[in-house]
Amino acid sequence: MSTRTLVSPAALARPRGRAVYWTVFTGVVLLFTLAFLFPVYWMVTGAVKSPDEVARTPPTLVPERWRLGGYRDAWDLMQLPTHLWNTVVQAAGAWAFQLVLCTAAAYALSKLKPAFGKVILAGILATLMVPAQALVVPKYLTVADLGLLNDPLAIWLPAVANAFNLYLLKRFFDQIPRDVLEAAEIDGAGKLRILWSIVLPMSRPVLGVVSIFALVAVWQDFLWPLMVFSDTDEQPISVALVQLSQNIQLTVLIAAMVIASIPMVALFLIFQRHIVAGISAGSTKG
Question: pLDDT digits over 124-134, tens only?
Fold first, then answer.
């Protein structure tokens, strides 16, 4: 059975057809590559320009003089090591709490079949329809009553209640063949042993996707850390960039944004295979 494509096999078999196809294909790829990479190039080179050159109209495509001192000034003046470390601590804690508790809850709802499990799942999914802004005040009052202001727990604990990641994990666990789990039960494995030795190794793609979602959500969040961290020394990078940018040169601020974006870009480049694999999560073979 032949597969229908935009270009017929007969056209590709001819030299002219192949030339036209690869010319168009290469042009489209280069166009999209330029569209995605040009903003990154513009931000990186903007940090090495002088303040006058950054504000010049029309702008210069290539810096007239490369000044790397903007990155050094951003590192020192904006206390980036402190705020980057705060962000790493907050993101890592939220990731660990979310991965452990969401995985346990998804496994229970998917394989342990608790009483009223469908009702519980429906209640969890119903929270997705509540705007995040509507939950800010109740969350803040709860955190303030518990005395968790200026504490990383104020970031970690609310991050656990992530209905989307929980549902994503549950849907993946639903696709794991029951025969595999029953074979482990016959061999004497308990519920926790099955989760640790069978379910989690088979769930690496979806766990990678959930991990990326959890880390990126904390790294780019602004409103909630701004509310719970009044102490400047405890603020993450997303809040510090705004709070400390009042009397900072534009080039130094751009350099700080470049440095702040490096961890997320590196995270994507390292775990891009997990992102692609997570797209087909649920295609487990029996």
Answer: 889 888 888 88
Cβ atoms of 61 and 177 closer than 8 Å = no
Cβ(266)–Cβ(84) below 8 Å: no
Whether the CA torsion 231, 233, 238, 243 is positive or negative: it is positive
pLDDT of residue 150: 92
Maximum Cα interatomic distance, the chain, rounded to a whole number of Å: 74
Q: CA-CA-CA-CA torsion for 207, 213, 219, 225, nearest 10 degrees?
A: -110
Tokens of 91: 């993101």
Number of CB atoms found within 10 A of residue 282's CB: 15
Q: What are residue 79's phi and psi, to 5 degrees?
A: 50, 45
- 10-residue block means of pLDDT along the chain (286 residues)? 62 76 88 90 88 83 84 87 93 92 91 87 89 88 92 91 89 86 83 86 85 88 91 89 83 89 83 63 46
Beta carbons of 123 and 183 less than 8 angstroms apart: no
Give the tens place of pLDDT for each residue, 104-113: 999 999 888 8
First to last CA, the chain: 27
Amino acid 171 reads R
Helix ranges restricted to H, the chain:
9-13, 15-46, 51-54, 69-77, 80-107, 117-126, 136-145, 153-160, 163-174, 178-186, 191-194, 200-202, 204-220, 223-228, 237-243, 250-270, 272-279
Tokens of 194: 């099955």
N residues, the chain: 286
Q: Please list, in sequence order, all residues whose beta carbon lies within 8 angstroms of the beta carbon of residue 86, skipping any fewer than 6 positions away.
A: 234, 235, 236, 237
Q: Give the number of C-alpha atoms closer than 13 A to the C-alpha of residue 54, restricted to the C-beta side.
A: 20
C-alpha gyration radius of the chain:
25
* Cis peptide bond prior to 58, omega within 30° of 0: yes
Closest C-alpha to 158, from 231, 244, 221: 221
